[in-house]
Predict the structure.
Amino acid sequence: MKYGFFDDLNREYVITNPQTPYPWINYLGSQEFFSLISNTAGGYSFYKDARLRRITRYRYNNVPLDLGGGKYYYINDGEEVWSPGWAPVKKDLDNYECRHGMGYTKILGELNGIKTSITYFVPLNTNAEVHKVVINNKSNVEKNIKLFSFVEWCLWNALDDMTNFQRNYNTGEVEVEDSVIYHKTEYKERRNHYAFFSVNAPIYGFDSDRESFMGTYNGFHNPDAVFKGEPTNSIADGWHPIASHCLEINLKPGETKELVFLLGYIENDPDDKWEGKNIINKKKAKEMIQTFSTIEAVDRALDDLADYWDQLLSKYILDSHDDKLNRMVNIWNQYQCMVTFNLSRSASYFESGIGRGMGFRDSNQDILGFVHQVPDRARERIIDLASTQLEDGGAYHQYQPLTKKGNNEIGGNFNDDPLWLILSTVSYIKETGDYSILDVMTPYDNDESKSKPLSDHLKRSFDHVLNNLGPHGLPLIGRADWNDCLNLNCFSSEPGESFQTTTSKDGRVAESVMIAGMFCYIGEEYARLMEKVGNKEEANRAFAEVRKMREVIMEHGWDGSWFVRAYDDFGRKVGSHENEEGKIFIESQGLCIMGRCGLEDGRAIQALDAVEERLATKYGLVLLNPAYTKYYIEYGEISTYPAGYKENAGIFCHNNAWIMAAEAIVGRGDKAFDYYTRIAPAYTEERSEIHRMEPYVYSQMIAGKDASRFGEAKNSWLTGTASWNFVAISQYILGIKPDFDGLIVDPSIPKGWDGYTVTRQYRGDTYRITVKNPNHVSCGVSKITVDNKEISGNILPLFGDGKLHEVEVILG
Ligand code: BGC
Ligand code: NOJ
């Protein structure tokens, strides 16, 4: 069942039924001011940090869903009260539509002949959200309506706001001047900032105190002021400050009126000494209001935003026979990658914005998905990440976005972390050809006195694995590798009776075959990089270590039919036929094959066949099988989840992409693409009532076959799934792969395809690559011509002339 449709021309998903199975959201903002907005106008805004600079309030696990707060509008048309976004009044509308687009959301509601559309967006380079409101009288009688706006302020620190009521119910302060409601709580002492909500028209009245607006025992759906048609002109004094304008609007038959509301945030200049003066400096707010005082200015800002997205999405454009695939590759997957770049794992309808900082491994992997869109910002991010690395090559697992400092509470010892830094750096260099990043002096642990060139950081990342090998010569897992819930280090000597902790610092002897596979894959990239920069000795050393690791994997990491996942702290296999549960895990199959283990002797194929037999379901590949049904203290959190959820045999969409890549590597394009379509959101659209999450973005997890809610997704938007699935489809399946010396063309596609075209902007040139498949094979390039001249090999030459180059690729 569907709840809307894709409008590919406008790059929008159009929701036509407000009662989606879960709130389907979008993100506004691309620099410092961000908002989440659902299809019924729920959500909130923040500046830079979702925890410390929360602008509007949101209650996460509220009843009913998504009435946690929002940017609501109400219309009292004399007969009825309703909301153009359906919620919060939830009055049935004659027409409803929500268009989630690139950085904007347009919600349209119509009742009693009054059509109202509200376009929400954050203009480029602006710390504000614009609401463009257009009201049209479609009837043939004159209408006199009252329009109410509504936002509820958060008292800045989102965690404190929802916990420290004894204080916070006394701190709220506002000011109202003309049509602007200012939120200035704490402006005197703590902070040199404020927020405001304005409209570019005279108002009939306002409210800034929630209780006066709503009534003590009412909710968002039935505020007193709206139902009476009379605002109370309240000035909040403590309790719950809000901002609500009331406008009287007269509409002749056929008449349209347009309004601009602006929700802005102002951070005063540090030398602007307004603190302590009992007034706020409104200058910057007034300037901002002036900038967006006309519809023309707002429309220009919308055009600028559209240009910005045109440009970001012009780097990789696919033209294939499959609309679903085109929309995933060209629009939604790349859009989601940019959102993960902006938000990391901080604020979604599953991440409360107060929990996590930026993850070291997460942020490095995110780079793979957006480096082609914003290479300069990727470069900056890589240096920020490397600056939190520790001198021994390990890394803080997380850092705070405001301070960019490593998080001491969580610490490090996740032994996969350092390798991801090599991968992100290599992918940046392959995209841009900019080797100078390797020379950037980059501190360890944010200590400038401990700065070394970035290349030194990569070396220490590589060596961190070698310096932490276990009894079988495999890498020690530390607190956990990519799988945060596989916690194998325990403190007592008896299996089953051990005291297990996820914070073990000394990393005992548990070993990870997954990190070993990563080392082969990413370590080889490191070796190739060293070769490119002319450091032969280091390259040879690295190649040799990788070769050695492959041998160790084939000796101790092979279980007979697939790769073992790990060795626990007692030296016993995890993810082996010897285990009663959790016999096979997905991660080591994907990464060992990406690390080119078992390619020559058939073992890679054997492992992938085992994946198909044991892990594949119609909704994607589960993480392990059979699911754990008991708690194993020596495995940790993974066995605490009910069977079929999250890391315990859920369909973890992130690592499905590694299997797609592995299938592509062994040349089985049909299987690679089949797995791709099982989880790609556009292909789940038809079963939205089962999948439940947005059909335009990936979710982290879909409940696996052991779960009663098999096929139901959770945790949409902020997941490494976005970047890895983009890599799988764009580089491994469609096979357009940036490399050190140019673009490699190496498709691995379903045999049935006749071909496709990818237009790729790369290092200043544009390549229009037409792949033809006359013999219906999956892979293997028989001929490539560039600008009508045949080339040898499959690396497209670099021209550096800024021109369009026509490439024809014949498979077979
Ligand atoms: C989740 C993991 C996540 C981790 C982050 C765990 O509870 O299952 O998916 O990576 O928390 O700390
Ligand atoms: C989500 C975390 O953000 C990521 O770092 C981790 O790799 C996966 N969960 C798997 O546990």
Q: What stands out?
A: The pocket of beta-D-glucopyranose (ligand 1) is lined by residues 484-485, 646-647 (CB under 6 Å). Residues 497-505 have pLDDT under 50 and may be disordered. Residues 285 and 420 are 42 Å apart (CA to CA). The first helix runs from residue 158 to 161.
